[in-house]
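Support request, please re-run this one:
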Amino acid sequence: MSEIQRVGVVGCGLMGSGIAEVCARAGLDVIVTEANPDALAAGRKRVTKSLDRALDRGKLSAEGRDEALARLSFTSDLGDFALVDLTVEAVAEIESIKLDIFTALDKVVQSPEAILASNTSSIPIMKLGMATGRPEMVVGIHFFNPVPVLKLVELVSSLLTGPSTVARAAAFATGTLGKQVVSSKDRAGFIVNALLIPYILAAIRMMDSGFASAEDIDTGMVLGCAHPMGPLALADLIGLDTIKAIADSMYEEFKEPLYFAPPLLLRMVDAGLLGKKSGRGFHVY
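Re-run finished. Output below.
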C-alpha cells in the first residue's frame, strides 16, 4: 500500500481551499488548480487568510503556518498533476463539469496507483468512475465546511472501487488528516445530505407558505431541538445554489417529492441570493 505524499486539489473555493489547507498542515505537498488566474489568486488568498486566522486563535504556530504555506503550490495547468498520489476534485456541484475533470485527470495522472477522489456531496461515484479508464481507483472523500474545523469525512465507494483504494483513502482521512470517517453506499446524497436536505427543504416550504418567518423557524430548531444552527441559516452557510444542486441530484435518482427543490429556492438562486457568500439569502449578512 503506497503512502500518499503529494496531493492535487482541483478547485480552490470554500471547500477546495479548506481541503488544501488541511493537507498542507498535515505535512503533505499540495498542488492546487483553478480554472482561471483570478479564481486561483482568490483561492491562494483564502487559504492564506485561513492559516493566519488559525495563527491568531492559537491553533497554529507561526512556524506551522509558514511550513504549510511552503508546501502549497498553485497552477492553472492540470498537467502539473502528473505525479500526484491522490487528487481531490472540489469544484461546483455540476455533474458535467465533474465528469470532464475526471476524464482529464485520467489522462494526466501518471501513477496507476493514484487515487482519484471527489468531494461531491451528492453525485454518484460510479458516474465519475466511468468517466475514467480506472474506476477501481475512484472514490468519494466528502469533507464538510469548514474543512479545517469539522472532523467528519464521508467515504463513498462505487461498485467498482477497489478494496485497496478504500483502505488507502480511509487511512489518508483518518491517519494523515485526523478526520472521523463514516462509510456510505454509492447513492445520491450519501448519509448526511440524504437526511439533511429534506429537512432544509421542509424549512424552506414552511417559510414560503407563510407558516413562520425565517427567524422563528431557525430559533425554534436552535432553542427547541438544541441544533447549533437553524435550517435556513445552515442553507445560507452551505449556499443555496449548492442546496439546489444536491436536491436536484437526489430527485433525479429517487423521484421522491421530499427531494424536489421548492419554487422559492429556485427563484432565490435565479436572483443570485445564494446565502452568506453573496451577502443575502434567507438572512442578510
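The beta strands are 6-10, 29-33, 72-75, 86-89, 115-118, 138-143, 152-157, 180-184. The chain has a mean pLDDT of 96.
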